[in-house]
Amino acid sequence: MKSLEIKRSVTNKRAVLLLGIVLVLFVILLGRIIYIQSTQEIDGQNLRALGEERWTRTEVIEGVRGTIFDRTGSPVAQEVNSYTVYAVLDQNYQSYVVDAEETASLLAPHINMNEQDLARAFTNAQAQGKFQIELGAGARHLTYEQVTNIRELELDGIYFREESRRYYPKQTYASHVIGFTERNTGEARMGLELSFDEIMKADDGSISYQRDRKGFPLLNPNETITAAKNGHDIYLTLDSNIQTALEQVMTQVEEQYSPEKMIAIVADPKTGEILGMSNRPSFNPNHYEQITNYLNYAVSDRYEPGSTMKMFTVAAAIEEGVYNGQEQYQSGTIEVADRRIGDHNEARGWGSISFDEGFYRSSNVAMAKLVLEKLGSEKLYEYLTKFGFDQKTGIDLPNEANSLLAKSGRVDAATTAFGQGSAVTPIQQIQAATAIANDGKMMKPYIIDRIIEPNQNTVVQKNEPEVVGEPISKETADQVKDLLEGVVTNSAGTGHPYYLEGFDVIGKTGTAQINNPNARGYIQGHGENIFSFLGMAPKEDPRVIVYVAVDRPKIGLDESGAAPTSMIFNTIMKHSLQYLNISPTVDEIAEETETGFKTENYVAQSTSTVKESIGEEGIELTILGDGSEIVAQQPLANKGMLEGERLFLRTDSETVSMPDLTGWSNRDVRRFAQVMGLNPTFFGRGYVQTQSIEPGTMIEKGEYIVVELAPSTENREPVEEEVEQTGE
């Protein structure tokens, strides 16, 4: 009995102890539960965050980098979808490369890869147990059309990954202005792409939602959306009609003359807007690995300008009242501080001539005398400052260079007066020339019209024309324009190659020597110069300024440096004026003639009726399309036409084929382009020799066509080079 009590007592103690242990464990567990519930943490890990991470999916909403547009809203740099091709080799996957050799044979031509190399890559990757492989540079950044062609092959194991890339649809179009980014838009490298990178960059957004264990979105999930912010869009002042024509003629001159470099700028002198800007060597931003020249010479290069500088020297003298154009002086040479300065015709000069004639002939002696004996060195530099040659223009392009004006004494003043010794930039010359074209008001050049914030579609920056100085009066500007006209039209002028009948082109030629990098002095030899022309038109109210410079073209012994320069200038000036609806005076007279055949309004008449009514009038009738009704005509109604001229009638047919333009006149091509809505560019004068769109090709409105014209006989007059002579 006693032993039973002892045994029961021990059992009770054990039960109490066990209960105590259970209670302690329960309290600990309860406390842990309360702790976890209140803190929501285990070992420093946030349970809510872990749960959200496991059951919540977050996806990136990619923003779009800002687009660069021309003045009409056509994109010149934009973000587009591209594709990367890759191959899956794992046999456990639903589709994999089964036949390496056959796949390589079909795929290799589409990704610019050797067939054997591609087959070897497949085989090696499979042997190494790789799941998938990338297929090299040629398989990246493919267009939708390229991917469609590959998909049509229906190759096992070939997949596509969609990505964004930067694309430049107009190829070499103003490439140094626009610059480029890496294809994935990861880093901007040059041009506007670099200088405005911060505002064109996009900010990615995100979307978060809850999902089930299989990854499907839950019903009514709590979505969290952070909207992406697209980059700002930039609209340029560049006119694609003018810029495209400029690129075409620059390419033609580059192929024909192989110069070291070329520069061309087209501007509106009323506003300072840059309508066109191009350099050679150029590059295609879509293939930036091939770039050889990173400089936008138009703004980042300074050099001795040559005789184009003389227009500003003369303007200063006229404004100060010390210029007498009829005063005689002895041309040939002048001694300045024991240094002999000579005229460009080997210092022979032209005897005793007037200062006006000296300007037409581009006499260095005339400019030296004008500055040293009449205007004074201090006044010269004062006016160069007024014309903006002592500071950057502030154009909205990166890496603008400044001038380097030589001011050490009388020799520097004399040589600077005729464009040697001091170095300036092309854009500085354009800015200064706006004062002459614009009644004395100098306009700041700019190339960005406006910047748009696309998310709210608001204008965050709008450039307006800005007068940055009035270096001369309207009267002085008019007198300088008279002198510039003489350069082109006077029998003594050096600018004969730049004469365009009916357009009143005025301007100043320049032929500058180039410093010899290997010895003292300048490079010598035929064509070893920078040939330039700074001109504007029409004279009475200039609407366009064009500057062209060609550095060391490969010209024949019977050719002058004006050949490549005038090819660019004349083509782009004529194209620009006609594009701006400034017609040649000779055309206006011809179209208003009352003699010969006079057109009627043929629109809405039947094709057969018009053919019958015109009959034997001696007019070359050109019917465009095979429709039954006329919808457009050139010339318009009530215009006089001479025998042999072409009357163009476009019918209501859906398609029109390109006619053979061989032998057509410039005027006929323009009328044809007008009635068809084409954009023509002309090289040369006379009658059509070649055309860029083959006869018989179906054409559409807005297409560009390039025609080359040549006269039946060419009578070339020799042009005297104006290489500066300083007697070094």
From TrEMBL:
It is found in: Membrane. It holds the Pfam family PBP_dimer. InterPro entries: Beta-lactam/transpept, Beta-lactam/transpept-like, PASTA_dom, PBP_dimer, PBP_dimer_sf, PCN-bd_Tpept. It comes from the Bacteria. The chain crosses the membrane at residues 15-35. Pathway: Cell wall biogenesis; peptidoglycan biosynthesis. GO terms for biological process: cell wall organization. Keywords: Membrane, Transmembrane, Transmembrane helix. It is an enzyme of class 3 (hydrolase). Belongs to the transpeptidase family. GO terms for molecular function: penicillin binding; serine-type D-Ala-D-Ala carboxypeptidase activity. GO terms for cellular component: plasma membrane. Residues 652-711 form the PASTA domain. This is serine-type D-Ala-D-Ala carboxypeptidase. It comes from Halalkalibacter alkaliphilus. It catalyses: Preferential cleavage: (Ac)2-L-Lys-D-Ala-|-D-Ala. Also transpeptidation of peptidyl-alanyl moieties that are N-acyl substituents of D-alanine. Its EC number is 3.4.16.4.
